[in-house]
């Protein structure tokens, strides 16, 4: 087995599992955040009322740390009790049918259920594209699949999501109550799912995003436990017993020949080895091509201000844009990005998609996060002062983000940067930290990134050109957000630069010179669609 450079995960996981067991919230459906929000609303109401009644200070529920540690993946009443115990609060357990306004464990649990069901009535349940792709590949290979969930609403959620019929077995909160199964981290629910599939746990895979669920998989003796860390808690999942951790299941793939494996930049196929396959996939399709800037259209340079676009690359982009929609997506500030590329008829998404503009004179402009600008101002000033003694760093302010570059900082000094940034962000909780190549990115703490921007752009472009097939080319960690939302749809191509990190991409090219060659190929493909003539690989 081969270890991936950034995580220590093995790339070859299991050649032919008997079965794969999927948790629901946060693995199959994008409902974990809705649960976290319902828990936050419940506990903050309860804690605030209690603080006022007792004259104590109000300490709000942490929807990240406390949600993961005390309630995520557990049966509802167990979650209530676990959190209250962590705060030293004792309440009567009550009865399962307690009214939601009663201050009992069951009453609070039923109020949380009320809040979550209200969310279900008002929102669409989204299935993660990478999970859907893996489900389809497993089903096509005849691998048995089960879904498990502590939620009593699991069947409703799966039906709303349109995937209930994708599973050979289901074990949820209703089943657990009827069978008297203890909740996670006890493995009883997972073992019941394996039993219903007639699968040997030692030859089966568990996929979980909750610490309690990962621990259940490890305790149950399952052959492989995959943790899905959609936030910054991969180490917690590994500590709980995950054999490997991915950010999204689009970083995995399953084929009959190779079995289940994690995709890395080192083992993904090259575009040039799969030209016939790509031509077949793209034949006759109208394209929307998304291109990262630094490291994709220009080489990575020590001084980010000197990453200038070569004239032959500019010409290649212009030629492509004459045949299809081209969008430049970058962490750079929008105005600077437009200046660097210098082509008026393109779309641009600056600041990781927070600032989007259509072609010149189109009048199209979208901005996300304007309400955070004053907070970014404060953090920028604080970092300018606090990092003054760290030589060769660079604080780059963009309209909707702050980049702290450390490519030229001595290795001994890099470790001093992160604690200063963490301390500063602790003082400004409306912002969050992201990562790029030799750069820390500080952005508004909202659900918006390159992936969200790409989906908005596809919807906007699709109104004018229905049926567009996306192609995304990028080299950065931030481009993985786009790769993940486009899983199973179009082409995702990563620029390797001799890296071997995990990736949700489909194919790779070697470097920016290879990108130029790729743009020429895409131009030929787009031309063939326009003229009705077949492009030659």
Low-pLDDT residue intervals, each spanning 5 or more residues: 1-8
Strand order of the largest sheet: 14-13-12-11-10-19-20-21
Termini distance? 33 Å
Strand content: 15-25%
Q: Mean pLDDT, nearest integer? A: 92
Rg from C-alpha positions? 24 Å
Shape: globular
Fill in the keyword field for this structure.
globular, 537 residues, six-stranded parallel beta sheet, 21 strands, alpha/beta, 18 helices
Task: Describe this protein's structure.
The chain is of the alpha/beta class and 537 residues long. Helix content is 39%, strand content 17%. The protein has 18 helices and 21 strands. It has helices spanning 32-54, 65-71, 76-86, 105-122, 129-140, 154-161, 173-179, 188-196, 211-219, 234-240, 275-282, 311-321, 334-341, 373-386, 411-426, 450-462, 480-485, 512-531; strands spanning 12-14, 19-23, 144-148, 169-171, 204-208, 224-228, 244-246, 252-255, 259-262, 287-291, 325-329, 347-350, 355-357, 365-367, 394-397, 402-405, 431-436, 439-444, 469-474, 491-495, 507-509. Strands 14-13-12-11-10-19-20-21 form an eight-stranded mixed beta sheet, with helices on both faces. It has a six-stranded parallel beta sheet with strand order 4-3-2-5-6-7, with helices on both faces. Strand 6, helix 10 (234-240) and strand 7 (244-246) form a beta-alpha-beta unit. Helix 1 packs across helix 4 and helix 9 (211-219) runs parallel beside helix 10 (234-240). Residues 1-8 have low confidence and may be disordered.
């Amino acid at each position: 087995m081969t270890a991936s450079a950034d995580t220590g995960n093995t790339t070859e996981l299991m050649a032919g599992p008997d079965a794969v067991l999927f948790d629901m919230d946060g693995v199959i459906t994008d409902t974990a955040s809705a649960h976290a929000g319902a828990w936050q609303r419940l506990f903050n109401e309860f804690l605030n009322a209690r603080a006022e009644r007792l004259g104590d200070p109000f300490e709000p529920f942490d929807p990240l740390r406390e949600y993961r540690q005390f309630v995520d993946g557990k049966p509802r009443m167990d979650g209530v009790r676990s959190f209250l115990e962590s705060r030293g609060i004792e309440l009567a357990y009550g009865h399962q049918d307690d009214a939601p306004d009663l201050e009992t464990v069951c009453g609070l649990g039923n109020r949380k259920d009320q809040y979550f069901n209200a969310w279900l009535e008002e929102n669409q349940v989204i299935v993660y594209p990478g999970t859907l792709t893996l489900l389809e590949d497993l089903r096509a290979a005849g691998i048995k699949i089960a879904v498990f969930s502590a939620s009593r609403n699991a069947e409703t959620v799966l039906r709303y999501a349109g995937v209930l019929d994708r599973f050979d077995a289901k074990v949820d909160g209703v089943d657990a109550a009827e069978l008297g199964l203890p909740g996670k981290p006890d493995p009883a629910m997972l073992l019941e799912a394996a039993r219903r599939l007639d699968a040997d746990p030692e030859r089966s895979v568990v996929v979980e995003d909750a610490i309690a669920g990962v621990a259940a998989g490890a305790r149950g003796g399952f052959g492989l436990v995959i943790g899905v860390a959609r936030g910054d808690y991969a180490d917690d999942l590994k500590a709980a017993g995950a054999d490997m951790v991915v950010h999204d299941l689009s970083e995995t793939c399953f084929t009959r020949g190779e079995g289940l494996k994690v995709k890395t930049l080192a083992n993904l196929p090259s575009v040039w080895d799969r030209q016939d396959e790509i031509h077949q996939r793209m034949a006759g399709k109208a394209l929307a091509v998304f291109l990262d800037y630094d490291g994709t259209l220009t080489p990575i340079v020590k001084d980010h201000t000197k990453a200038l676009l070569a004239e032959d690359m500019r010409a290649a982009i212009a030629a492509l844009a004459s045949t299809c929609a081209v969008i430049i997506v970058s962490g750079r500030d929008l105005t600077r990005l437009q200046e660097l590329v210098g082509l008026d008829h393109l779309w641009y998404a600056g600041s990781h998609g927070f600032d989007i503009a259509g072609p010149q004179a189109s009048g199209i402009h979208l901005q996300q996060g304007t309400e955070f600008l004053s907070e970014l101002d404060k953090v920028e000033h604080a970092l300018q002062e606090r990092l003054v003694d760290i030589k060769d760093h660079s604080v780059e302010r963009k309209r909707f983000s702050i980049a702290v570059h450390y490519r030229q900082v001595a290795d001994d000094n890099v470790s001093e940067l992160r604690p200063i940034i963490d301390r500063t962000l602790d003082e400004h909780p409306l912002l969050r930290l992201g990562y790029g190549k030799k750069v820390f990115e500080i952005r508004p703490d909202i659900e918006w990134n390159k992936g969200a921007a790409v989906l908005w752009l596809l919807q906007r472009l699709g109104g004018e050109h229905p049926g567009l097939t996306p192609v995304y080319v990028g080299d950065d960690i931030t481009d993985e957000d786009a790769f993940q939302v486009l899983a199973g749809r179009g082409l995702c191509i990563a620029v390797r630069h001799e890296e071997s990190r995990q990736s949700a991409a489909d194919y790779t090219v070697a470097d920016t010179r290879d990108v130029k060659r790729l743009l020429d190929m895409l131009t030929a493909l787009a031309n063939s669609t326009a003229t009705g003539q077949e492009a030659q690989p």
